[in-house]
Amino acid sequence: MTRTLLLTAQLAIAVAAVTLSLTPAQAEIPWQTQLKTAHAQAQEDGKLILLHFYDDNCVWCDRLEKGAFQTPAVQAAIQKGYVPVKIHAGQNPSIAKTFQVTRFPTDVIVTTQGQALSHTVSPQDAGRYVAMLAQYVTPPVADQAVDTMIAAAVPAEAIAQATPTAPFKNASFAVPADLSGTPATQVSSRTESSMSMPAGMSAPAKSELDLAMDGYCAVTVCEEDRWVEGNPELGVVHLGQLYLFSSQAAMEKFVANPEPFTPVLNGIDVVRFFEERKIIQGNREWGLKDPDHNRMYFFADEAALNHFYNQHARYTDASLAVMKKAVKDANP
Fold first, then answer.
1. How far apart, in whole angstroms, are the C-alpha atoms of residue 288 and residue 231?
2. Number of other CB atoms surrounding residue 208 within 10 Å
3. Is-above-0.70 flag for pTM?
């Protein structure tokens, strides 16, 4: 009997010790469970609300809990700008439906006025999770956090090549008429040397100017899912590449707002960019549009495309953040 009581006491002490050792780490992120309470706190503190949806039997939910959520950087980023709410989707199906959450884990960032700022599958990498949060907090915290994430995750030469070769505000202009007789399939950096540039803009070197999307109309691809060859008479230079268009209307639409029609990272394979820290130009034959932002991504091979297709949420926000920073740096 005495031996049994002793073993029981030792077991109780061990369990208590484990529980105490886990408590500080688990308490680092002050999760709320009631939306009403979180909303009131966010209003009082002037913060945003982070809704973290998870579910049972979710491997990625468990990995996030044991990984990024245990890092000081993620814990500090959440506490600094957000009131976090953890929501079990299985136990709160109506809330999950309201915020259109169907994959787990998912984070939704909302204002106290109810405006949704972000809706994305939770990044597993701590740096990318911090970058996601940093995009929506008050500057300069956001800019500093994004810069830190990019500096840690992306080599400097990658940023340099992702940055426009000319200021974004002045980077688009019509191709002069003397190229009108050149077939689309033959337009290249070699035929662009006579192109005149607007005042105040230096002409790019020949090696910097390539035919974007093999001469196919970017607007038609994005809006109609059709590959239509562009007309050499309807050309625009943007981010160091020559874009051709199937109609005057398509060209004008691109000039008015090039971003939605421009391949992310100027066509660099984002999977190799983030996973291997390599700059490899994608091929339009291995291209697709992501379902979250409807932006074009090109990949070097089928393996990279399939990887992105299965895990696109891990790359879209991060790649768009890099692109946004590149454009911002080009327009100080």
1. 23
2. 14
3. no
